[in-house]
Amino acid sequence: MLYIHGFNSSPLSVKAVQTRDYLAANHPEVGFYCPQLKTNSQGAIEQLESLVNSGVGRENSLEPTHSRWFLIGSSLGGYFAHYLAEKYALPAVLINPAVKPYQLLRDYPSEQTQPYTGEVYRIGTEEIDALKALESNISLKNNYLVMLQTGDEVLNYRQAAAKYQDCHLRIHNGGDHSFVGYQDSLPDIMQFFQLPLAVR
Question: Which Pfam families match (predicted)?
Fold first, then answer.
């Protein structure tokens, strides 16, 4: 399981920790990975692709190294997860995903401080262009479960609802960008990934 955190977030985000703990309790056979992403999209994608192609947990399998990854992406992480899902034909759950982050980030201050690592970095034209280059269409609509909350104060949920209208789409009234009640959705997420509960 590869959890991809959002903009200026980290593996310590609430949803990442809840996912890790749920897997440990209910699906101990599934490894959990959530790297601290680099602050530029090209570096972040290189990190994620390196992990997907690494063969982690597949040492004794004849399958391609990337064939058994499950992706969960939140916000900007949802945008990255979509890119990986298309490139490697992987199932992905997108939580309040960014659809056009290159437009949104144009309105952000160019100088940013990563709150978890303290890194100071800039969002410039090069980064905006790199993000736009990652934009992908949908080739396998059944590979996506998209979960949106109408109360998202950061992203307009209607953008994602329109883009993913032919996918598995669940729109929850209210909530916010953090996706209120995410923990309660974890059983449904695992069911979408067709993960049976471990025999105890």
Answer: UPF0227 (PF05728)
Tokens of 188: 């449904």
Q: Which residue has the tokens 């401080």?
A: 113
Cα 111 to the chain's mean position, in Å? 24
What is the spatial distance between Cα 194 and Cα 7, in angstroms, rounded to a whole number?
A: 28
Per-residue pLDDT tens for 13-33? 999 999 999 999 999 989 999
DSSP state of 107: G
pLDDT band at 55 (very low <50, low <70, confident <90, very high): low
- Rounded to the nearest 5 degrees, what angle is found at the Cα of 156, between the Cα atoms of 78 and 119? 50
Mean pLDDT for the stretch of residues 30-59: 88
- The domain ranges of the chain are 2-192
- pTM to 2 decimal places: 0.91
Query: How many angstroms separate the Cα of 7 from the Cα of each of 56, 95, 113, 163?
Result: 25, 13, 11, 20
Q: CA–CA separation, 75 vs 7, rounded Å?
A: 7
Coil, strand or helix at 81 = helix
What is the tens place of the pLDDT at every residue in 156-185?
999 999 999 999 999 999 999 999 999 999
Please state which architecture CATH assigns to domain 2-192: 3-Layer(aba) Sandwich (3.40)
- Cβ(93)–Cβ(115) below 8 Å: no
